[in-house]
């Protein structure tokens, strides 16, 4: 799957920990934890804090960043 450059490091960490990342048809990404919890993010982040906010949300569901 092709992931935007801003998410590439986070994508690699998530996949190595058993997460799945799927592209939604409406240009969003769905980050799915091994337990089935879902976190959604924009495919193209619009602000400077988008990646930090996504990391925070993923940590809440168990991703070790």
Overview in brief:
With 65 residues, the protein is of the alpha+beta class. It has 2 helices and 3 strands. The model has no long low-confidence stretch (mean pLDDT 93).
Give the arrangement of secondary structure elements:
Blueprint: H1 8-16, E1 20-23, E2 28-32, E3 38-42, H2 50-60
What does it look like?
By secondary structure, the protein is of the alpha+beta class. The chain is built from 2 helices and 3 strands, in the order H-E-E-E-H. A 3-stranded antiparallel sheet has the order 1-2-3, covered by helices on one side. The model has no long low-confidence stretch (mean pLDDT 93).
- Strand order of the biggest β-sheet: 1-2-3
> Low-confidence spans: pLDDT under 50, at least 5 residues?
none
Question: What's the gyration radius in Å?
Answer: 11 Å
Element-by-element helix/strand order: HEEEH
Strand content: 15-25%
Principal-axes geometry comes out as globular
The number of distinct β-strands equals: 3
């Amino acid at each position: 799957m092709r992931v935007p450059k801003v998410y590439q490091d986070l994508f690699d960490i998530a996949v190595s920990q058993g997460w799945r990342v799927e592209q939604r048809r409406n240009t969003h990404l769905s980050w799915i934890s091994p337990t089935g919890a879902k976190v959604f993010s924009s495919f193209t982040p619009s602000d400077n804090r988008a990646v930090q906010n996504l990391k925070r949300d993923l940590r809440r569901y168990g991703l070790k960043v």
